[in-house]
Design a protein that fits this description.
By secondary structure, the chain is mostly helical. 31% of the residues lie in helices and 0% in strands.
Length: 96
């Protein structure tokens, strides 16, 4: 005698997990080694993200300097002009 066939529904496969759609990261750099550290970040992080098809990667640099003795006029002029030349979107010195 042949056993009766048991109709079992096919096992459902779970839907694939949603892939991350955004990345953000913040890192403090040593002011005396910015070139080296930024280069490593470019190679080890940015390149991987920018290499993805249709990826839009934006990198910004934020600079904060606390100057307890104040900035001399010449430094203010030089930094302000260099920021203008380098097309900073915002920059400025503050008294406090």
């Amino acid at each position: 005698m042949v056993p009766p066939e048991i109709n079992t529904p096919p096992a459902e496969t779970p839907p694939p997990a949603a892939k991350p759609k955004r990345f953000h990261g913040t890192v403090l750099l040593d002011a005396t080694r910015v070139g080296r550290d930024a280069g490593r970040i470019a190679e080890e992080v940015i390149a991987h993200l920018d290499g993805l098809v249709h990826a839009k990667v934006t990198v910004s640099i934020e600079i904060e300097a606390m100057l307890p003795d104040g900035a001399p006029d010449q430094v203010v002029r030089t930094v302000t002009e260099n920021c203008r030349t380098l097309k900073f979107t915002s920059q400025g010195f503050e008294a406090e």
